[in-house]
Write a structure and sequence with these properties.
It is a single chain. By secondary structure, this protein is of the alpha+beta class. It starts with a helix and ends with a helix. The longest helix is centred in the C-terminal third of the chain and has 35 residues. Strands 1, 2, 3, 4, 5, 6, 7, 8, 9, 10 and 11 form an eleven-stranded mixed β-sheet that branches. The chain is globular and about 80 Å long. α3 packs antiparallel against α5 and α5 packs antiparallel against α6. A hairpin with a 5-residue loop joins β2 and β3. It has one domain. The chain is built from six helices and eleven strands.
Length: about 250
């Protein structure tokens, strides 16, 4: 009887060990599926990854070819494109209730800021993410299982980015301005962690704030050039430029 019990225990231990190994070795597919499943739900746009490679032993790796499209109603093909995102996480944490990410390094992202009198694409994405985060909070009231797994991100940096401008108020002409570097830390470091929606909300809010600031500064310089160009064309032309710049300022509020 004791031998049979020992065998059962040994078999169970082996099965659990195999399950753990399979889970850890499946990190790539887990991360890719998570991004491509939650991303569209949060942003209401196309989100996809070309590839994910994360070491099951060290937890270090990279996400390659991240693409975030625009919500319905916008013409430009993408809102965010990133060639490579370096990550470092605790491999064993993927088996728990809170996934611990030591660092996320986003290098050279390409952001498209599409604006019109109806608003801009990044603000729309933020609104969608905020709505998703709200549903997470409602689910949390039903219990931990309904709320889903939490995250902890110790450090997140975004460097070397550029912003492509697509402004209908400027006749559809495009321009490019640099994105200021972004450094966030200690996201969800408490015992309860942070939900994916809340994490995305904090990141998108910061990106939007830095983007609008950079765009506003870029357009200020453009406005001075435009005003100087039309000074000799009469008050009507100068007034038109002023109206255009006022409209540009208004779109940041939407």
């Amino acid at each position: 009887m004791k031998k049979a019990l020992v065998r059962i225990v040994v078999v169970l231990v082996i099965l659990v060990a195999v399950a753990l190994v399979v889970a850890v070795l499946s990190l790539d597919s887990i991360v890719k599926k998570g991004v491509e499943t939650l991303g569209p739900e949060m942003t209401k746009s196309d989100v996809r990854l070309d590839a994910v490679h994360i070491s099951a032993l060290s937890g270090r790796g990279a996400l390659k070819g991240l693409f975030v499209g625009n919500p319905a109603g916008f013409k430009t093909p993408s809102a965010i494109k990133v060639g490579r995102v370096s990550v470092s996480l605790k491999p064993k944490s993927v088996l728990g209730d809170k996934i611990v990410v030591r660092s996320i390094q986003v290098a050279n992202p390409e952001i498209t800021f599409e604006g019109s009198l109806r608003g801009n694409n990044l603000s729309r994405i933020l609104e969608n993410v905020q709505a998703y985060a709200g549903t997470e909070k409602q689910a949390a009231q039903q219990g931990p299982k309904a709320a889903g797994r939490k995250l902890e991100v110790d450090e997140l940096t975004i460097t070397g980015g550029k912003i492509n401008l697509s402004m209908t108020l400027l006749g559809g002409k495009s321009a490019t301005v640099p994105l200021p570097d972004i450094h966030l830390e200690n996201l969800g470091t408490g015992p309860e962690g942070i939900t994916p929606g809340d994490l995305a909300q904090q990141v998108v809010q910061t990106v939007l704030a830095r983007t609008t600031d950079a765009v506003a500064k870029g357009l200020t310089g453009l406005g001075k050039n435009l005003t100087g160009t039309v000074e000799n064309a009469g008050k009507g032309a100068a007034g038109t430029v002023g109206n255009v710049l006022k409209g540009v300022g208004d779109l940041f509020k939407k």
